[in-house]
Write a structure and sequence with these properties.
The structure holds two protein chains of two kinds. Chain A has helices at about 1-10, 15-35, 40-85, 90-95, 105-115, 120-130, 145-180, 185-215, 220-225, 230-240, 245-270, 290-325, 330-365, 370-375, 385-410, 425-445, 450-460, 465-475, 475-495, 495-500, 510-520, 525-545; strands at about 85, 285. By secondary structure, chain A is mainly alpha-helical. Chain A has one domain (about 40-270, about 300-350, about 380-550): Orthogonal Bundle (MetI-like fold), CATH 1.10.3720. Chain B is of the alpha+beta class. Chain B is about 25% helix and about 35% strand. Chain B contains eight helices and 21 strands. In chain B, the strands form four sheets. Chain B has a six-stranded mixed beta sheet, with helices on both faces. Classes of the chains: A mainly alpha, B alpha+beta. The interface of A and B includes residues 453, 462, 558 and 559 of A.
Chain lengths: ~550, ~350
């Protein structure tokens, strides 16, 4: 016991301090939610938990189930299509199937709603083609329904499964497929008996990510008139001003997320994450030419077409019409500036802290303190943006109150809101929400460096911090750049926390789009939507380049103890 | 050599370690004298790398004492971190920093004060390992042998009193390996630092070390000069580790083991079942002074040597002998067999 305590004290250093601080900030909103939720009660509480929450839970559950089914089916099928078959246009399709990643769900919902509007371009053209005169005579089914929402969420989110599963097919399938063929299995039975079971962990991981995004969404659900738990949290706070009520629903949501994670762990089985890597030889695909090949291409192109090409083309057209008609609106420049500043600040903080926490854990192998702090600090990824924002509202509100009272007690004039609704609040929210992304990217980068590099620098006289500065930092530059890009774009696209925490009058591209859509003035948001999608394309460019083997200067050999 | 009164450069006293309850080191005591080269030799998993990492400070022993010169660096609550030990370590994968060139790698351990003195030390070392013209090259541009020499120069640059090496030859091919053994031994003697190298190859150990510490399952089996260990292995494991043996079951009675190949003195072996172990190159095919007769079952030419499989009269299994390759022997020949008795050991079975 004394030994254990002694080693914890011995391991305590700047890294541990930073880790504990970040962990505390990540944990604070969740703890605050629990505390404030305990304050609610009475009539409102009964109303919430007898009518609002059960209905919203049911609708959220159905949406999650539908989206989960859609992304598993479309993601796995499209990955198998491009990995195991060769047909004209396969290379193009491989990349095109990634493109919907550029669309946040709320932007895709926004585009499709505009496209499918009864007097929008699609239905108007269809009517003139079929010879109907008035919108009342012929109408497509309204996308603002559960099936419509499943389709739109699914189209935006299936790439999570596609990416994960395709990696498995490319990296692990070569010899196994050949072995299965040699044992007499045909194409279909290779898929069902070898590929699918192998890809199961990846499918589960991808689907969990997609469902997590579904739970996180606040814009699309609202546009599509789906009353999810997230929407309930949002409206309970924004429309009723009932923070304890919102906190209670938020806690219900956390329970939902937790059960999702449990289900994912179960669905993955006892296997760990799919091993990322590339086989020495790629999977030899089956060549399919002629009409059948064309058919496969068309089939594979469908999700990319509906998930990216059509809505993006619509946005381009709308935005250019708007620009030609009214010119560049002044406020969009301010909004771009706001978006960039908030995202850049959060990126710098998250990447810097990621380096310190992940590096600290690596430099203290076996230290429970460093490992535990890192684990708690990354919890934010599982907390939906709305839930996190409500928690932070409570924390910052409390902080402002304490400061005000302290200032008054010291004889000063009451201070206003220092943290609530400030840029700081927004940046903290982004960092907590996306810290896991930064940490995992840096971790992947560090794992590629042999631990003997660290140990070597230690025996040559460097302290742990010296190793971080002189070895890790220069060698991790590409990994850090990659992490920064992903983080930056995710912060840019973030909607729910931004809506709740932004300073008064502070508009980003995302909140601008949300405002226009909420008002029903779709055409005014096209430019902002297009800009968001354009930034969203950046990480996809990086992602597709990652697939290519690059000459590496990094040491890869392992120096493990005997 | 060094007078016995000087404190050892590196000393382990009853060092114990385990990984998650699995014993890795079970009470190791060993002292390395200044300037001495000691090889930790043993099969993989015997704990030799763990002992090296404990000396470096990369691993904290569960019990026991480690001292460098006359300073205790690990015992109980005392634990000196690796950067403060003044001990150099050369890694199996060399661990050259890929973002630094050869000169910067070698200069790394000289601290963040790149003065003219540091520059001179680096230039001198790079020259000594024969890489003067490669100072500006990056590690990925070097061959395996060159990388090893940079790693050595880098570990020596801070002038550590003890230099530790983890499998220094394992990443080199056979030919390069033979050359580097002699070169390494010479460089080490020049610096005067004590050195401990870990290896699983007895040829490496015998070519470089002043003393060999043979290890098995976390314990020291035998410590001595290469010749002592080779000539007088303490047990069957130590004997088997250096060369292939013909092991012939026998029974010891009154200090003698009787076999179809003759009777052998079994000093210190109690009466009962035993193994008579004969090194394969101890045999001589000599029709004149034969101790017993045999028939050649198969032969194979191996370059410098010839391997001969023999059916010995009165023995129910064949044995293998390694003889001079110039000797012409054909399958089916009848030969006389004699033995160099210094290459025969008797151990209890």
């Amino acid at each position: 016991m004394r030994r254990l305590l002694g080693s914890a004290i011995a391991a305590f250093d700047g890294f541990a301090l930073a880790g504990l601080a970040v962990a505390a900030v990540a944990l604070a909103p969740i703890v605050a939610l629990a505390l404030i939720a305990a304050h609610g009660g009475g009539e409102v509480w009964r109303h919430l938990f007898t009518s609002v929450v059960p209905a919203a839970t049911l609708e959220t559950g159905l949406l999650a189930l539908g989206v989960g089914g859609f992304v598993v089916a479309v993601g796995t099928a499209s990955a198998w299509l491009v990995a195991a078959h060769d047909f004209p246009g396969r290379r193009l399709l491989e990349v095109a199937l990634l493109l919907p990643l550029a669309f946040p769900v709320y932007v895709l919902a926004y585009s499709w709603l505009d496209l499918l509007h009864p007097i929008g371009p699609l239905q108007t053209a269809l009517r003139s083609l079929l010879g109907y005169a008035r919108p009342a005579d012929f109408r497509l089914p309204d996308p603002r329904s559960l099936p419509g929402a499943v389709l739109i969420f699914g189209l935006a989110l299936y790439p999570y499964v596609y990416v994960a599963v395709r990696t498995v097919f490319l990296a692990q399938m070569t010899t196994l497929t050949e072995a299965a063929r040699m044992l007499g299995a045909n194409g279909a039975s290779v898929f069902f008996r070898v590929a699918l079971p192998l890809a199961r962990p990846a499918i589960a991981a991808g689907a969990a990510l997609a469902i997590m995004e579904t739970l996180n969404d606040v814009g699309a659900a609202e546009f599509l008139s789906i009353n999810t738990l997230t929407a309930a949290v949002y409206s309970t706070w924004v429309n009723r001003g009932d923070l304890p009520g919102a906190a209670q629903i938020a806690l219900a949501m956390l329970a939902f997320v937790l059960s999702l994670l449990v289900v994912e762990k179960w669905a993955r089985g006892d296997r760990s994450y799919a091993v990322i890597g590339r086989a020495s030889r790629p999977l030899a695909p089956r060549r399919i030419d002629g009409l059948a090949g064309l058919g496969l291409f068309a089939l594979g192109a469908l999700p990319a077409l509906l998930g990216f090409v059509v809505p993006a083309a619509h946005l381009v057209r709308q935005a250019s019409t708007r620009l030609a008609f009214a010119g560049m609106p002044q406020e969009i420049l301010v909004e771009i500036g706001n978006t960039l500043v908030a995202a850049a600040l959060a990126t710098v903080v998250a990447v810097g802290l990621g380096l310190v926490l992940v590096g600290g854990r690596r430099l203290h192998p076996g230290s429970r303190l460093h490992r535990g702090a890192l684990r708690v600090a990354t919890l934010g990824y599982a907390v939906p943006g709305t839930v996190l924002a409500i928690g932070l509202l409570v924390v910052f509100g409390g902080l402002d109150g304490v400061i005000r009272e302290a200032v008054v007690a010291l004889g000063g004039r009451p201070t206003g809101l220092l943290f609530s609704a400030s840029l700081t609040a927004l940046v903290v929210a982004y960092v907590v929400r996306f810290f896991r992304l930064s940490a995992s990217k840096i971790e992947t980068g560090l794992e590629r460096l042999s631990p003997s590099l660290d140990q070597s620098a230690r025996t040559l006289g460097r302290t742990p911090f010296g190793v971080l500065r002189e070895i890790h930092l220069p060698l991790l530059r590409p990994a850090l750049a990659g992490a920064a890009l992903l983080l930056f774009v995710d912060c840019m696209k973030e909607l729910p926390a931004t809506l709740l925490l932004r300073p008064l009058g502070f508009e980003t591209l995302a909140t601008h789009l949300y405002g226009e859509a909420a008002r029903g003035t779709y055409e005014n948001g096209a430019l902002a939507a297009l800009l968001i999608v354009a930034f969203g394309l950046l990480p996809i460019v990086v992602l597709t380049r990652l697939g290519r083997p690059a000459p590496s200067r990094e040491a890869t050999a392992e120096g493990a103890p005997a | 050599m060094t007078p016995p009164l000087a404190p050892p450069a590196l000393a382990f006293a009853d060092v114990r370690h385990d990984y998650r309850g699995k014993t890795a080191l079970d009470g190791i005591s060993l002292a390395v004298r200044p300037g001495e080269i000691v090889a930790l030799l043993g099969p993989s998993g015997c704990g030799k790398t763990t002992l090296l990492r404990i000396a470096a400070g990369l691993e904290r022993p569960r019990a026991g004492r480690v001292s460098v010169a006359d300073r205790v660096v690990a015992e109980g609550d005392v634990f000196v971190p690796p950067e403060k030990r003044g001990v150099g370590l050369m890694f199996q994968d060399y661990a050259l920093f890929p973002h630094l060139d050869v000169a910067a790698n070698v200069a790394f351990g000289l601290g963040r004060r790149p003065g003219p003195l540091a520059g001179a030390i680096v230039a001198d070392l790079i020259g000594r390992v024969g890489l003067a013209d490669r100072a500006r090259a990056y590690p990925h541009m070097l061959s395996g042998g060159e990388q090893q020499r940079v790693a050595l120069a880098r570990a020596m640059a801070p002038r550590p009193s003890v230099l530790l090496m983890d499998e220094p030859f394992s990443n080199l091919d056979q030919r390069l390996r033979r050359g580097m053994r002699a070169e390494l031994a010479a460089l080490l003697k020049l610096t005067g630092a004590a050195a401990v190298l870990v290896t699983h190859d007895p040829d490496d150990a015998m070519a470089v070390a002043d003393r060999i510490a043979l290890m098995r399952t976390g314990r020291l089996v035998q410590v001595g000069t290469p010749e002592e260990i080779f000539r007088a292995p303490v047990d069957l494991f130590a004997a088997r580790f250096f060369t292939d043996l013909e092991e012939i079951p026998a029974t010891v009675t009154a200090g003698r083991a009787e076999t179809p190949l003759g009777a052998f003195a079994a000093r210190g072996v109690r009466d009962g079942p035993a193994l008579v172990c004969i090194r394969r190159d101890a045999f001589d095919l000599d029709p004149d002074v034969a101790e017993c007769a045999a028939r050649v079952v198969a032969t194979r030419f191996l370059g410098e040597h010839r391997s001969v499989r023999l059916a010995v009269d009165g023995l129910d299994r064949s044995i293998e002998a390694i003889v001079d390759a110039r000797r012409e022997i054909a399958t089916g020949d009848r030969v006389g067999l004699s033995l160099d008795r210094s290459e025969v050991f008797v151990f209890p079975a």
